[in-house]
Amino acid sequence: MGPWLLIVFLLSACGLASGGPGAAPAPVESGEMGARAASFEVTKTDAEWREVLTDEEYRILRRGGTERAFTGKYWDNHAHGVYRCAGCGRLLFTSEHKYDSGTGWPSYWQPADAHAVVTLVDTSHGMVRNEVVCGRCGGHLGHVFRDGPPPTGLRYCINGNAMDFEANSEAEPTH
Questions:
Q1: Could you give the domains of the chain?
Q2: What mean pLDDT do residues 44-61 have?
Q3: Which residue in 6, 13, 87, 152 is a FRET match for 42, CA 20 to 30 A apart?
Q4: What is the value of pTM for the model shown?
Q5: What is the rounded distance in angstroms from the CA atom of residue 170 to the CA atom of residue 162?
Q6: Beta bridge partners of 167
Q7: Cis before 25 (ω within 30)
Q8: Taking a C-beta distance cutoff of 8 angstroms, is the pair 152, 110 a contact?
Q9: How many helices (H) and strands (E) does the chain have?
């Protein structure tokens, strides 16, 4: 297999190729993190974000960083509850939609509701991906791929350190 064919194969296997059933929500063109801030309900200056976020939360949410696989909060969390944006508290995902993708990041097959997240085009690192940001503050959460389970076929691959978890004390943990 030639090197270009191998690259196309790997991109397809990772859910980076476009089209097909279970397609991710249509992304909108994104710009610099700060340039798109005006389109979100919660906006703060860079200094204000630095005051309310930890260094790791700031690096991920405001600078588009990524935690290493199997190191972030919640990748192996099996408790029932909800996941909120660490920047603004917006409800993003529920444990009902979480599954073990084997990637080392918390993975969900759908967001909590249609307005929880926004999908943007991410052309960083020489790839074209669908970036997922908080629908309220625009904080970078991760990416969505087309290799998830039914019924959506989507995998929202999210940085655990971009979220806070609220356990539902009445529910038993899942395995």
A1: 22-167 (2.170.150.20)
A2: 96
A3: 152
A4: 0.77
A5: 25
A6: 81
A7: no
A8: yes
A9: 3, 10
Close Cβ partners of 76 (under 8 Å, ≥ 6 residues apart): 70
Helix (H, G, I), strand (E, B) or coil at 83: strand
Tell me the DSSP string of 105-168: S-EESS-SSTTSEEEEEE-GGG--EEEEEETTT--EEEEEES---TTT--EEEE-GGGEEEEE-
Q: Tell me the two tokens of residue 128.
A: 């074209």
Tell me the one-letter amino acid at 2.
G
Q: Which amino acid is at 154?
A: L
Helix (H, G, I), strand (E, B) or coil at 18: coil
Report the distance separating Cα 73 and Cα 88, nearest Å. 17
Active-site residue list: 157
CA 88 from centre of chain:
15
* pLDDT tens per residue, range 67-124: 999 999 999 999 999 999 999 999 999 999 999 999 999 999 999 999 999 999 888 8
Cα of first residue to Cα of last residue in the chain, in angstroms, is 40
